[in-house]
Amino acid sequence: MGASGTTRSARGSGDLSPDPALVLGIDTSCDDTGVGIALGGKVLANVVESQTALHARFGGVMPELASREHLEVIDDVLSRALAQAGVGLQDLDAVAATRGPGLVGALLVGLSYGKALAWGLGLPFVPVHHLEGHLAAAGADPPFVALLASGGHTALFAVPDWGAVTELGRSRDDAAGEAFDKVARLLGLGYPGGAALARLAAAGDDTAVALPFPMQGDKGLEFSFSGLKTAVALLLERDPGVRPADVAASFERVVVGSLVSVTLRALARTGLARLVVAGGVAANVRLRREFAAAGVDVSFPPPALATDNGAMIALAGAMRLASGRVPEHPLRADAEPYLPLTGAAR
Q1: Given phi > 0 = left and psi -120 to 50 = alpha, else beta, which region is 333?
Q2: What does the alpha-carbon distance between residue 242 and residue 238 come to, in Å, rounded to a whole number?
Q3: How many CB atoms lie within 10 A of CB 296?
Q4: Is the pTM for the entire model greater than 0.85?
Q5: Cα separation values, 65 from 30, 45, 53, 101, Å
Q6: Cβ(61)–Cβ(103) under 8 Å?
Q7: How many angstroms separate the CA atoms of 263 and 280, rounded?
Q8: What is the layout of strands, in order, in the sheet containing 32-39?
Q9: End-to-end alpha carbon distance in the chain
Q10: Which DSSP state fits 281?
Q11: Tens digit of each residue's pLDDT (9 = 90 or more) over 273-285
């Protein structure tokens, strides 16, 4: 696909049928610089430069530092992604980048870089919603219910079609990944703590510690994890000798139990049979195991695509190009730190 917006014929196959687009995707929504390349629904490259070491000493992401680091490394990350895919800039059909939600300064780095790259190469530019990228990474076709669970988001959506997304419910307070990180900090596991807490939980007894189940008896489609985090803090203050692995295992059991029970309720209420679980928490082994045990037709992204990355943005950009869901003036798209998925998916 060149500047004219027409799709090239098949690359070297002699087949005159349209080719899938070769799309470069950029994600700088938070503290990882991600550049990926996808050919239609196939990932050819996925390079992520982590900023974990930079922010760990602060116990969380420092937005200004994150933006400056994106500027420092994005050229190198792009070069590595092109080399990994075995393509050059001249081979690209389009450029996609995250426009929101996320940290506004960080978003502006990747969005501006993507716009400039597309304009300079004479290629279409595709602004992409960050959460749509997470959904695209799972590789499932609508209709489905989506559970998006990460450090910044925990929400349920009905997705009858890519252009029609309805929010069913969300967390009233902390996102699931945020709760994992906060409890990990209480247990002295450092930042980011989600994966470390899950590893510690594997060595613990998940019935050893009594913790409250969030919103017990509620029949809605919302989540709440702030009270659970507070219960862990009070437990550790009251009983400092409690075994950390048992606390981690019990906490993980309750969080996963809440995610699964509310999501099963959403499937029953919507009548949709398929589930997509995406976002960083989708990498949690216990979550995957419990959905499988529930007999749900569920799709997860590969572990490498579960956390923030540019490949998922390339996949979503390719889908938008194929369906014609590109705004009339994409280069005018601005960074939107609180961009809702509903409406933006059209």
Answers
A1: beta
A2: 9
A3: 18
A4: yes
A5: 11, 26, 12, 18
A6: yes
A7: 17
A8: 42-50, 32-39, 22-27, 94-100, 125-129
A9: 21
A10: G
A11: 999 999 988 889 9
Answer for the pair 124, 52: CB distance below 8 angstroms, yes or no. Answer: no
- Amino acid at residue number 194: G
Q: Are 34 and 77 in contact (CB under 8 A)?
A: yes
| Cis peptide preceding 101, ω within 30 of 0 | yes
- The one-letter code for the residue type at 188 is G
Complete DSSP assignment for 63-106: HHHHHHHHHHHHHHHHHHHHHHHT--GGG-SEEEEEEESS-HHH
Strands 274-278 and 164-170: unpaired
- Do residues 28 and 98 make contact, with C-beta atoms less than 8 angstroms apart? yes
CA–CA gap between residue 334 and residue 115 (Å, rounded): 10
Choose among 245, 281, 246, 240: nearest CA to 260. Answer: 281
The model's pLDDT over 253-296, given as tens digits with 9 standing for 90+, comes to 999 999 999 999 999 999 999 999 999 888 899 999 999 999 99
C-alpha span between 50 and 69 (Å, rounded): 10
Q: Which residues contact 135 (CB under 8 A, 6 or more apart)?
A: 146, 148, 159, 276, 278, 316
